[in-house]
Amino acid sequence: MQKTIERLAGDAEGTIYEFPVFRFQGKDKKAPSAYLQAALHAGELPGVVAIDALMPMLSKAEAEGRIRGPITIVPWANPIGRAQYHFGEHQGRFSLGTRTNFNRSFPLLAAPDVRLLPDTTLGGADQRLKTRLVQLSLGTDIVLDLHCDDEGLAYLYIHTSLWPHMADCAAAMGVDAVVLWSEDADGTFEGASIMPYQNVPANVARFDRRVVTTVEYRGMLDVDAALAASDAEGLYRLLVTRGVIQNPSVAKLGTFAGAVVPLENIDMMPAPRAGAILYDVKPGDPVKKGDRLATIVHAPGEIDGRTEVFAPQSGFILTRRSRRIIRAGEDLLKLAGDKRSDDARSGTLED
Q1: Is residue 175 domain-resident?
Q2: In this protein, which residues make up the domain named Succinylglutamate desuccinylase/Aspartoacylase catalytic (predicted)?
Q3: Is residue 350 part of a domain?
């Protein structure tokens, strides 16, 4: 294993950001390559501890000569967000300097060619970081961006061009659901990793062997040793299944049995009033059209001081908010519906 330190100049003199990159060299030039990163939203830690649990497994495979393709690991992908605190509260989702989501505004290239990356010499530190992460990952066969939601099931975002080719990956990771998407106008890291292959020859795109996904490891508070070990086993199984690591003792799982939902079927359920949320449902719960999902207490103790929110269609609860205070118009939850949402959104579901 090789460890290097990436250094990024900050936006003021004397400010430098650093993050480590670990590389395992493969012994077979024809084997698939893999890139894994975690904590692009710097406060989302389930992927960080999953990588921590995965590293000894990779080191053992390396010592035994079982790593076939090169593996690049970035356990803390966002040193800028990691350092951001405001009045004691960590702020890892948005850049405080630009007010931009750290998982937006990545360069969407027309082809997988690093020469097409923008010149960020005069750009901000967050843009330099994003360009460097694309540079580190571009051309890799397997790209996994590890995130988590507020409270939720384990699920994957997968571009429609990679489904059902990636069904074996979803099964290997043991996730509960897959959300399929087709457009990216916001420049997510996942979009920057798959969009360059949409208009290139099939022998370059290689959708049959390509893996690109945003992994949502349940919720912000799901950070413990048992879950980390289980998630690491899923990552390791994926690498074995796709031929990056050789390990005949790891059994390939069968067909993915979880839910597969088009992004257009997700109802986000904006809150009609501001107040305190009383949820009637939790992630994984099935719901029918008309079921009460939550009650918002907007005027405590008063007649008509509560507003109920009902399911617009049947389906199941994918995620919900971890905080119980909400403003009018903010999203209460993700309902994975049986049909297209009346409020269908393309691209990203939320800011």
Answers
A1: yes
A2: 31-193
A3: no
Backbone angles phi, psi at 54, to 5 degrees: -75, -35
Domain range for 279 is 264-337
Residue 238 within any structural domain of the chain: yes
In a shared domain, residues 252 and 268 = no
The Cα 120–Cα 333 span in angstroms is 37
Question: Of the candidates 257, 287, 322, which is a domain's last residue?
Answer: 257
pLDDT tens-place values along the chain, 351 residues long? 999 999 999 999 999 999 999 999 999 999 999 999 999 999 999 999 999 999 999 999 999 999 999 999 999 999 999 999 999 999 999 999 999 999 999 999 999 999 999 999 888 999 999 999 999 999 999 999 999 999 999 999 999 999 999 999 999 999 999 999 999 989 999 999 999 999 999 999 999 999 999 999 999 999 999 999 999 999 999 999 999 999 999 988 889 999 999 999 999 999 999 999 999 999 999 999 999 999 999 999 999 999 999 999 999 999 999 999 999 999 999 999 999 999 888 788 888
Structural domain includes residue 41: yes
Model's pTM, two decimal places? 0.97
